[in-house]
Specification:
This protein has 8 helices and 7 strands. The chain is of the alpha/beta class and 259 residues long. A 7-stranded parallel sheet has the order 3-2-1-4-5-6-7, with helices on both faces. Helix 1 packs across helix 8 (225-236), helix 3 (70-84) runs parallel beside helix 4 (107-135) and helix 4 (107-135) packs parallel to helix 5 (156-176). The protein starts with 10 loop residues before the first strand and ends in a 9-residue tail after the last strand.
Length: 259
């Protein structure tokens, strides 16, 4: 059972909201009373979730937005603000997973990772913060990864972008703390999202890989999207009013596991 927070009267934007952690966070925000703007390039999944939430009596809408495009992100934040004249919460969740060591990655893959993973968080903050400043504050949560904190084989570019998110979070948090905008990051371990399910399906032995993923977490399993969503909701809530510029690891003990 998730912890209850009250977001009544608040507007929350979730990027990458069509599935996985983003979808779980959108549901949590809606259930807590927020007007939720779901953003994604995957229109079918995003619209279906928005319709589902609306049918359940919650306030939700879908806006097609590409986090890799400056104009698209500017329009997204403006559209969200115009709903009720406020923008209280932003969860920068959208991202892509492209594997490869430094010597293996193509320039196109490197640039795509930078543009979507790190650039998407940058643009989210860039266009949400001015609206938050107008109303005296707000809360932003950026999605990083435990790969920003430890070395993993085969994910050089992905890890680099997730590490950049942590630095950007700290810098932006310090810049706007006195003006009431709190900015934190979450660093999930292996979470069973459709993206990771796709990685499993493409492997030679999905069951063996799943066991391996579970074994590297001291709790003995991978995480659930809803568990990350609950942490995002806490960091976005008034209960976390004295917290900014921090990274919260949610990985079942993976990052402190003895080798």
């Amino acid at each position: 059972m998730s912890i209850s927070y009250d977001f009544t009267g608040k507007t929350a934007v979730v990027t990458g909201a069509a599935m996985g952690i983003g979808a779980a966070a959108a549901r949590r925000f809606a259930e807590a009373g927020a007007c939720v703007v779901l953003a994604d390039v995957q229109e079918e999944g995003g619209r279906q979730l928005a319709d589902e939430l609306t049918e359940r009596g919650f306030r939700a809408c879908f806006v097609r937005a590409d986090v890799g495009d400056d104009a698209s992100m500017s329009a997204l934040m403006s559209a969200a603000y115009e709903i009720d004249g406020r923008l209280d919460c932003l969860y920068n969740n959208a991202g892509v997973a492209i594997g490869g060591e430094v010597t293996e990655m193509s320039e196109d893959s490197w640039q795509r990772l930078l543009n979507i993973n790190l650039g998407g968080v940058f643009r989210g903050c860039k266009y949400a913060i001015p609206h938050m400043l107008r109303q005296g504050g707000g809360a932003i949560v950026n999605c990083s990864s435990t790969q920003a904190l430890r070395g993993f084989m085969g994910w050089a570019g992905y890890a680099a972008t997730k590490g950049g998110i942590l630095s950007l979070t700290r810098q932006a948090a310090m810049a706007y703390a006195r003006q009431g905008v709190r900015i934190n990051a979450v660093a999930p371990g292996t979470i069973m999202t459709p993206m990771n399910e796709g990685i499993l399906a493409a492997s030679e032995n999905p069951q063996a890989m799943l066991r391996q993923w579970g074994d590297i977490h001291p709790v003995g399993r991978c995480g659930r999207p809803e568990e990350v969503a609950d942490l995002v909701l806490y960091l976005s809530s008034d209960a976390a009013a004295f917290i900014t510029g921090q990274t919260f690891v949610i990985d079942g003990g993976q990052s402190v596991r003895a080798e």
